[in-house]
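User: Continuing from earlier, I have the next pair ready.

Assistant: Great, send them over.

User: Here they are, in order.

Assistant: Folding the first of the pair now:
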Amino acid sequence: MIKERNILDLIVETTAWKQMIQQFENDNIYFKTRLASVLSVGRHDLPLEQFEHFQNRFLKMDGQITLLKHEVRQQLEQLQLTANVQDNVEDLSLLLQSQLGKRIDLLEQQFELLLHDFSSYIDTHFPEL
């Protein structure tokens, strides 16, 4: 069934992933900025351990985003080069596409969990923000 996919479908899918990853990156920046703004409130009772925990999770997410961004860009370049030469999809391209899809799905799940955890924490402990 996977063999039936054509190169243009893979290019469209990979381009969508590239945009999705860019949105993850933008959202991660926004939430790191939000974390900094909470810290700038200057209250002495702030639970710094919890903020360090979220900061570490955001930094780990940065690393995952950067790695996937690079791999998606490489896959897109390879697919575009292949499309210029032939119409059929190589087995290796299909395998890489499948693996990238699984990793992007996992990143999306992890990202949604992180944003949910952070938003819930902020909403619960800092409703004024």
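And the other member of the pair:
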Amino acid sequence: MQPLPVPCPAHLIPDASRTGAFHQAYRQAMAHSAVFVAIESDGPRWTVKADTLTAGPGHSVDDTVNDAIRSAITHMVENREIGADAYAGPIYFMMHGLSSQERARELAAALHAALYGDLEPLHRAVPLTS
């Protein structure tokens, strides 16, 4: 299995729903010193998970990126797109309660790009203007 490209197209985000798939994807990210990202189904709802620890000590996410991710997650919680139990970093990120696999993939790809410093996909996926 190859590491995810950066930016990662939504259709390549791993679905970690089946037994063992989460651990396999996580180990794969660690083996390539890459940011972990995956989606999982939770009944009819979807979850996005990301973790920067797998990328190793040389990978850092600056404050501007963390602030943008936190703002996007807060916005989605306030609009009830995701659950209030979301994790907004700075190392581990999780968004529960997404209504579709397509939206979960879009947000996972945008989060993955952001964690590598490219905020544009996140701004497109979660516009913060009223």
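Worth noting for the second one:
The first helix runs from residue 21 to 31. Residues 13 and 105 are 6 Å apart (CA to CA).
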